[in-house]
Design a protein that fits this description.
Elements (H helix, E strand, L loop, with lengths): L9 H37 L7 H20 L26 H32 L10 H11 L1
Helix pairs in contact: 1-2, 1-3, 1-4, 2-3, 3-4
């Protein structure tokens, strides 16, 4: 039958699989679902006009494009990184499909994206602790508790 990739293009498939998984998780899901909705809804639910640390929030926001560019730069490295989005064996230990330069770019990009997420988490926990909930009711909205537990993880 017809194949989408030739047998010698298995490494290309693994590179695209790696990039797609990392981009979807670390460049869309974490920033959009956690930071995006958190920055919009958390101040509303705690009765605040803004999150408590807006400069940390800005640093967190500007680390996202930087980390994204570094992560995507791994795709244009010499051969690309075909280590899978989880970076576990067997793909991460295969000498034939692993490019250490591309893996270094992925790790550097994930470090910036992770720092952005951690700064957002610090901001959310600080906002809930120091701004309180609406009318002083700490057991208020389930979303506030979900953000706190997600931030602490």
């Amino acid at each position: 039958g017809a194949r989408m990739f030739a047998v010698d293009c298995v490494a290309t498939y693994n590179v695209l699989f790696t990039l797609h998984g990392l981009a979807m998780i670390f460049m869309f899901l974490m920033p959009a679902l956690f930071s995006g909705f958190g920055n919009y809804l958390l101040p509303v639910y705690v009765g605040s006009a803004e999150v408590i640390l807006p400069r940390i929030n800005a640093i967190s926001y500007f680390l996202l494009p930087l980390g994204s560019v570094l992560l995507l730069h791994s795709f244009i490295a010499e051969f690309g990184a075909a280590v899978g989005w989880t970076m576990y064996a067997p793909l991460s230990t295969n000498i034939m499909t692993m490019n250490t330069e591309a893996v270094d770019w992925i790790i550097l990009g994930l470090a910036f994206l992770g720092t952005s997420s951690i700064l957002g988490s610090i901001n959310f926990v600080g906002t809930v602790i120091f701004q309180g909930c609406v009318a002083g009711n700490k057991s208020g909205v389930l979303y506030v508790w979900a953000i706190i537990f997600t931030s602490l993880m």
